[in-house]
Amino acid sequence: MIAKLLNWERIKPKGDPFMWAIIAILSFWGLAAVYSSTGALAYAKHGGSAEVFLFQQLAYLLIGGYVMLYIHSIHYKMFMKVAKLVLYVSYILLVLTLFVGSEINDAQRWLTIPFLGITFQTSEVAKVALILFIASELAKRQDDIKDFKKGSLPIMAHICLVCMLIAPNNLSTALVLATTCFVIMFIGRVTIKHISYIIVPALLALLLFGIIVFKTPDKFLKPFGRILTWKHRIENYSKPTKDSDVSYQNDHAKIAIANGGFWGKGPGQSTERNFLPEAYSDFIYAIIIEEYGMIGGVFLLLMYLFFLYRAFRIIIKSPKAFGALVAVGLSFALVMQALINMAVAVNLFPVTGLTLPLVSKGGTSIIITSMAFGMIMSVSRYVEEENSLPDKK
């Protein structure tokens, strides 16, 4: 068993070399950025030793890298067999999170593994599980896909349920996941008319919910902590006040970006890392621009977009709907998360709490993200192998 796990011939990188190169660049760049941006955190927790976080991040990246390589060696058809089981497990995890989840930064998004003390964000597991399930069901239901009741309604029911379980503590992730799911359904030949049966009522309900929240005095919203947080974030984004935490974050992110200019101050030369809260996670993009300049920020943006482009190319090559939908769905979710993180850092969006995949400081989140990248690369690997078979004959 151990020999199989360590068999380099089995797990060595195969598939799209451009996608592997982007994953490597993001990982190494993230390692450097985390080391640079954890100065204030290191001083508060370890007396100024940022090397602790450097080696911690490196350890998680190495574990995640191995997980990614091993998963990419498994044929993507195997994911179809376990998709439904993983989704049902994620339901249990999400319900447990609502009732006994660990609270970090005023958000109850994590479960703690007993005896180990390791926390993980259950919405990340649910995100991967739901995308696998949708891809699997769409592949199976292609003959009935134009029939709303038989084809798309059962799938949409799971989308709504999972997003409703995630939303109370992580609205931004729920919205990103819902958007991703409907993109997958559109690519999977579900008609816009059928998709609108869910999207239109959901948007109207969200609009009504927003109107009620903003018309309700804060004192009545205090028992619903996250709702009050959402309200304040949007209010501070639209009408920033000097004494708010959100305005403080946005102001220092702007200063970091302004300090960076076109070429940047150089790796490790950030000054705003000492003032910007969550500089190593939510606002790491601002620190990257400060150190590597606008040219570095644009290059990082293009890395994610190019990865998504290469993933969409798999649709053309893939002989099976399931593989194409998995690759595009997971890639779209990861890149959309990255774009929102960047938009928050440059003050285009209100603060959301979404991190930059493979770049932001993380623990189990890096491993779960690596699993998603591994599944994408599994599709890339075996699609290329399947396409090369006729040439060998």
Question: How many β-strand runs?
Answer: 3
Instruction: Report Rg.
Output: 21 Å
Major sheet attributes = 3 strands, antiparallel
State the distance separating the first and last CA atoms.
Answer: 33 Å
Specify the structural class. Answer: mainly alpha
**Which range does the strand content fall in?**
under 5%
The chain-level mean pLDDT equals: 87
Q: How many helices?
A: 16
Outline the low-pLDDT stretches: none
**Helical percent range?**
over 70%
Strands of the widest sheet, in order across it, are 1-2-3
Task: Summarize the helix and strand pattern as letters.
Answer: HHHHHHEEEHHHHHHHHHH
What is the overall shape? Answer: globular
Question: What's a quick, concise take on this entry?
Answer:
This protein is mainly alpha-helical and 393 residues long. It is 72% helix and 4% strand.
Question: Layout of SSEs?
Answer:
Blueprint: H1 2-5, H2 8-11, H3 17-37, H4 39-46, H5 51-72, H6 77-100, E1 102-104, E2 107-113, E3 118-121, H7 122-140, H8 148-166, H9 171-187, H10 192-215, H11 218-221, H12 225-238, H13 245-260, H14 284-317, H15 321-345, H16 364-392
Antiparallel strand pairs: 1-2, 2-3
Helix pairs in contact: 3-5, 3-14, 5-16, 6-7, 7-8, 7-9, 7-15, 8-9, 9-15, 13-14, 14-15, 15-16
Describe this protein's structure:
- It is a single chain.
- By secondary structure, the protein is mainly α.
- It has a domain at 85-216.
- Helix content is 72%, strand content 4%.
- The chain has 16 helices and three strands.
- The protein has helices spanning 2-5, 8-11, 17-37, 39-46, 51-72, 77-100, 122-140, 148-166, 171-187, 192-215, 218-221, 225-238, 245-260, 284-317, 321-345, 364-392, and strands at 102-104, 107-113, 118-121.
- It has a three-stranded antiparallel β-sheet.
- Helix 5 (51-72) runs parallel beside helix 16 (364-392).
- It is globular and about 55 Å long.
- The two termini are 33 Å apart.
- The mean pLDDT is 87.
